[in-house]
Amino acid sequence: MKKILRITTVPMSLKILLKGQHRFMSQNGFEVIGVASTGKDLYEVEEAEGIKVVALNMTRTISPLKDIVSLWEMYWLCKKEKPTIVHSHTPKAGIIGMLGAKLARVPIRLHTVAGMPLNESTGSKRKLLIWVEKATYAFATKVYPNSKGLLDFIIENRFTTKSKLKIIANGSSNGIDTSHFSPEVVTINQQIELKENLGIASDDFVFIFVGRLVGDKGINELVQAFEKLYSQNSGIKLLLVGDYENDLDPLLPITLQLIEKSNGIIAVGFQNDVRPYFAISDCLVFPSYREGFPNVVMQAGAMGLPSIVTDINGCNEIILDSQNGLIIPPKHTRAIQEAMKKIYEEKELYQKLKKSARIFIQSHYEQQFVWNEILMEYKFLQSRE
Hints:
Layout: E1 2-7, H1 11-17, H2 21-26, E2 30-36, H3 40-49, E3 52-55, H4 64-81, E4 85-89, H5 91-103, E5 108-113, H6 123-139, E6 142-145, H7 148-156, H8 188-198, E7 205-210, H9 219-230, E8 236-241, H10 253-261, E9 265-267, H11 275-279, E10 283-286, H12 295-302, E11 307-310, H13 315-318, E12 325-328, H14 333-345, H15 347-364, H16 367-383
Parallel strand pairs: 1-2, 1-4, 2-3, 4-5, 5-6, 7-8, 7-10, 8-9, 10-11, 11-12
Helix pairs in contact: 1-3, 4-5, 5-6, 9-14, 12-15
């Protein structure tokens, strides 16, 4: 049986972003080994997916000495396991995984691109990140941008040759299980109880954000926009589901103060199961600066929610403006406020967007279709070796 090493920088990516895919591949002719930094999430992947996992510590920041150690460990892991395929996700795992596999002469080296931190960087840091991105693609035998916007960006900036690039399915790294993310999975009684626990009135219109509470997700602008709208209408709420990352991308002090003091903002932290929170909400607001192909927007759509998203990679492919959501410019507080006001006040428009939300996700990003397309790609590449 041929081996595949799936490598991500942190185990949470193996656990959440690629959930279910490891087991599917292991049931269809491949021995899958999950590789990521150590942590309980890594061993939860082992148990949940029924695959072998290996801890290989990597940092998400630029750390030359630690990166050399990670590269050395990746090289020897490949020499020991002798995989046919190494498939990397996330930037640091990309450069470590692709170079380590290249040095170990792994024949098939695949990298999925799901967003680029360099888009929000400047100066020497941006130049370094561009070099890392180009090097990762050079060491890979195939590169998979998970959105058309990313594909176009890579081609326009000449990061690699066009022949090396391919979008699998319609985009996305893992698709969406619309039987799991479905409005029917959370009962009315569960919704009522959760709303009561959070202090949300039955007739409140609830906007929700799900993801990391960091600057480049547009949280500073979102909180400011919501507060301005809330001052005009107290019948709305903003539900924030996710953790802060103060070491990497902290929010502005004023934003943190508003979140803490506002009667309209409810921050519940990271949640293993976000479906109940989608179920009590009316609209996702996702004003991110950069994305690959955001799972959150697909999840919200599958749960029957329209979305307000920024005009960036991935988001503007999942959302069609005025069909299943609204598209606004990034980094634009006023635009967020106006879109939220429009969604809340124009009931006919809201119902139209809501009606289309789940249908669009089912027809374009069903998980089984995406998995089958990735499996076919693996088997095709293997057949050419």
